[in-house]
Specification:
This protein is mostly helical and about 200 residues long. It is built from eight helices and no strands. The chain is globular and about 50 Å long.
Length: about 200
């Protein structure tokens, strides 16, 4: 990923936070901003967001590695808006856990030529599920600050995943496939564990 792309993503994240902070004066969304910043650190969300960044750096051309995170964040926001408006799906938490398994499979097969459009569609579909969960838990103090918070945390987690992927390309190029396979398997097992937790 080029330095210019990283700067653009960081600028977009900062502007998002600034917008939320401007609307998050005491009594008008400060609590929502903090909740938004914290919410993605649940295991299912955290694993998915890091995995998207890692998959994007591993499966997409270098100059397009930002496509996965941008797709995820756009679909996340759309899903959160739907969730905040009252839309819900049965077995949503089960589906979110299975999305972690999906990202594990995608990561394990990152070098096997899944079409970019198909990969991004899967990213978007899974992200809408995560967004519905975010939206359903939006605080009464206001959606905008909450959304700014979870979008910033999401961007940071994506950047962490991309950084891991780029580091692997640089320092483990000959073992990259094996490492991705191991990480994908670990992610899949984690997703199955999370599914078992919500299914009981």
């Amino acid at each position: 990923m080029s330095l210019n792309v990283i700067r653009r993503m960081a600028t977009a994240a900062l502007l998002t936070v600034a917008t939320g902070a401007a609307q998050a004066h005491t009594g008008h969304g400060t609590h929502g901003l903090v909740e938004g910043l914290i919410h993605p650190f649940g295991a299912d969300h955290l694993l998915a967001m890091v995995a998207v960044g890692l998959w994007s750096a591993s499966a997409l051309p270098l100059r397009r590695s930002w496509w996965g995170p941008v797709t995820f964040m756009g679909a996340l926001l759309a899903g959160a808006m739907l969730g905040a408006s009252g839309l819900s799906l049965p077995y949503l938490e089960h589906a979110i856990a299975l999305s972690v398994v999906l990202f594990g499979v995608m990561l394990a097969g990152a070098q096997r030529g899944l079409p970019v459009s198909a990969g991004l569609c899967l990213v978007a579909a899974a992200s809408v599920l995560h967004g519905l969960a975010h939206g359903a838990e939006s605080p009464q103090t206001g959606f905008s600050g909450y959304a700014a918070g979870f979008l910033l945390t999401t961007a940071i987690l994506h950047l962490g995943g991309i950084s891991m992927g780029l580091a692997m390309s640089r320092w483990m190029s000959q073992r990259r496939g094996a490492v991705l396979g191991s990480l994908g398997a670990a992610l899949g097992v984690s997703g199955l564990y999370l599914f078992g937790q919500v299914a009981t």
